[in-house]
Amino acid sequence: MSDRVELRQVSKVYEGVTVVETLDLAMKAGEFVVLLGPSGSGKTTLLNMIGGFANPSAGHVFIDGEEVTDLPPAKRPTATVFQDYALFPHMSLANNVAFGLRMRQVAKAERLTKAAEMLKLVGLEGFGNRGVHQLSGGQRQRVALARAMAVEPKVLLLDEPLGALDLALRRQMQEELVRLQRRSGATFVHVTHDQEEAMSIADRIVVVNKGRIEDMGPPDRVYLKPASLFAAKFMGESNVLGGRVVEAVGRDLKIETALGALVVPGDAATGAAVHVALRPEQLVLAPTPDSISLGHGRIEELSFQGTHCRCHCRIGSVDLILRAPVSACLTPGRDVALYAARSDVVLLQR
What is the CATH number of domain 3-233? Predict the structure, then answer.
């Protein structure tokens, strides 16, 4: 796939405050990219620079190889769906969906035909004469998507469009977004702070923090093998231990931690300060041929989560979170031994 969107040496400064550090970012044609990060991380500013709602302080923006850095939104092959949907309450759904085509001076009959096609695409066939006030939140979100897709953008920009929906509806719309993206073949760039949402829909996640890209890759790699301490902590729960490399043993490192010495795979200089990270589901109650011992501890707290029990286990001064199978029948106060596969341990140096 060729690059559809490319940011080259782009940065953004607002009133002397750097919101986006100088960075490069490329997105492939037909790729579903999620910009993930906390509030104020710079992810929406990145989206706005792609869409033309904010001009970069430095650098260049390209779409399909053509520079669009100085072009206004209406001149770019993009469309944007905002969290508030911005539908026109005085218009029918058909006219809402056809609005962008109207602005492009498409003939009325043609644009209404296209609007009907788009409403069908998002599961609202026959709704064209209804008013916005007659819709649920999920239906309004679909109309906003239909309006954006009606102009056949090469790049669809989504600024936290699911944030106002309840959990069940949000999950339903996540699935529909993925189906819509696959059918359209457009590049989708989606902004969210919801890690589960990002992992559910993305081909590639870009983790953003303080205007910098902390990590970037497929959801499974970013979750299981994060590239930075921030990514490890932000992408769901993680057990993180600080330590220092005391010895290199072949391709392994001996790291002194609050749980004692751990021998784990990795490459770092002797004496280097590092962190090791393990996801709660990677902690187990029985050893395997490839496992390392984390020590013996006591279950302090436990909550039933349906598919598993979420437990706090204290080993010395360290509080670890594990997701134990319900069949383990753990109870608060019980002593347990914890293990983890050596291959699951992530070594973090930044």
Answer: 3.40.50.300
